[in-house]
Amino acid sequence: MSKSLITPMPPTKWYEGLAQYQQQGVAHVLATVVAVNGSAPRDLQSKMIVTLDDCCDTLGGGSLEHDVTLTARQLLNGEFEPNNSKASSQPLKAGRSAKAQAVRREAVYSKHYPLGAKLAQCCGGSVTVMFECFHLTPPMSLLVFGGGHVAAALMSILAELPCQVDWIDSRSEMFERYLSAESGTAEGQVNDQLPAHIRVHIDDDPVDFIRPFLTNGARRLSINKGTQYFILVMTHDHSLDFDLVRAALDCLLATDSKTALKESSARPYIGCISSATKAKRFRDKLLQRGYSEKVVDKVTMPIGLEIGGKEPMAVAVSIASQILQLYHQA
């Protein structure tokens, strides 16, 4: 229920991290000791998880673990070409296509480590570590405003997809079916009806969620290009919808000159549920307030593909289809 959208503390055991990052679709590497000769800091099949930001569990610390972590993050970033016949990392050759780079990153890579003077380790033995990359394509990340019928139907779809969702409404009663009382938890409530990758927030100032969402998105998009971040506005209040759309545009304009969001393919999707009349009214109001047509065109209204049907689930399917299309075609 936090307004800050702060990423939770990383898990401490590799299997907890694997389960969490697999469910959330976070890019990560599973590093496993697959061979041991002589003395080594950890046993055969010891494992750790490395993400771009965190690590969980250990392969023994020291220079060995430092290099394992560095290698894993180079793989996640596509910064070198694995070569199984050599212990060192090979720089990427100029002119290699993004597709070829992705193939290399998705391959299983092994690296041999003599635990001697070169690694400043005195074990005297050696280990071989296998690196397996998962979720190299960043997951969809969605900020959904409004807890009405269409949003609820959409959540039943997103519950089955690898994505990260923050779902916000000021009306606690909209989430009663998902939340139950539990002492000792934040605000005395726990989400027991939605998967962990869908986080519910009850807040009177939903606009405050936009800046941290786009800031986090800009940081990750500096590494991975494409439409991965989606803001979906579908509240019960048209004036609030307008405030949310305007705040998203303001934040986007503020970050455009500083980050990878300058690239059109990297901009987040900003969409608002609407009729044709509402869409025209919003567009006219934005133009009257000084936004250029180029900026106003960044807002998708109405949202969803034109597949027909006005039932909440039909509209939710059209919205999910549109964001999946944009995500996979980016």
Task: Describe the protein in words.
The protein is an alpha/beta fold and 330 residues long. It has 9 helices and 15 strands. The strands form 4 sheets. Strands 12-9-8-13-14-15 form a 6-stranded parallel beta sheet, sandwiched between helices. A 5-stranded antiparallel beta sheet has the order 3-2-1-7-6. It is elongated, with a radius of gyration of 23 Å. The model is unreliable at 83-97, 99-103 and 260-265 (pLDDT under 50).
Mean pLDDT score, rounded? 81
User: Uncertain regions: pLDDT < 50 for 5+ in a row?
Assistant: 83-97, 99-103, 260-265
Give a quick account of the main beta sheet: strands, pairing sense, barrel closure: 6 strands, parallel
C-alpha geometry: elongated
C-alpha termini separation: 31 Å
How many beta-strand runs?
Answer: 15
What count of helical segments does DSSP give?
9
Strand order of the largest sheet: 12-9-8-13-14-15
Radius of gyration: 23 Å
Structural class: alpha/beta
> What letter string, H or E per element, gives the SSE order?
HEEEHEEHEEEHEEEEHEHEHHEH
Strand content is 15-25%
Helix content: 25-40%
